[in-house]
Amino acid sequence: MTAPSPDLAPIDRLLAIMSKLRDPDGGCPWDLEQDFRSIAPYTIEEAYEVADAIEREAHGELKDELGDLLLQVVFHAQMAKEAGLFDFADVCRAINDKMIRRHPHVFGDADTRDSETQTVEWEAIKAAERAGSAKGDRVLDDVPVALPALKRAQKLQKRAARVGFDWPDAGRVLDKVDEEIAEVREAIASGNAAHIAEEIGDLMFVCTNLGRKLKVDVETATRDANAKFERRFRYIEDRLAAQGRKPEDASLDEMEALWTEAKLKEKAAAPA
Predict the structure, then answer these.
(1) Are the C-beta atoms of residues 121 and 162 closer than 8 Å to each other?
(2) Domain assignment of residue 145, yes or no
(3) Ranges for the NTP pyrophosphohydrolase MazG-like domain (predicted)?
(4) Helix axes 36-55, 59-82, angle to 10 degrees
């Protein structure tokens, strides 16, 4: 079986490649074994790899990662075509129609002059779409379960806030954070592991709500905190390595002193 011609338009060649990979007559055994459920984890993984390349400003890698993510869309569309559900052209038509429908200020006669108003209108259009779909019309319907927990928490809170179930300001949320910390302390004192986990979960949920009230994307903020932790811990490793030592050879006090040193160096190097 020969490869699809490079003279084809790039997207047509990719579709042809995927079709051949899934061809029972000479296709790839691994690709033929897959279904929507088995491919879904790879789709999620590829989306994260796109985000990682962006975070690292690895723009050369970003091209490849976007290609990998596009392949996931093509793979799902090919399986859907084989099942008689829809094909790649239907996927494109659906997103074309959705983008036009959700941007009446660009493709219609709506007069929206700022991004905040546009966001409100976008959510109203989405709500109307949900009401007319098979997904259900309850407030929290269709918030994907597979989202990262922090991202899903923020989406759940945002959805509930649209119908008035929300704290009036960030100060009230901070009070709730204090309350949840007290409940974590009580749970720890009880020694009940399940209760401790529950209360820590409640604390994380409220902290996520605080981020939402302050217009902070908690998923991004946590990713930044992870990167900062990695950066400072590697500083500790490097400083100890210069002494011929490893972290396990150092005391906690020594490592904390190096952590503070790394923190001060970062602050000194930061733009004023």
Answers:
(1) no
(2) no
(3) 34-107, 176-232
(4) 160
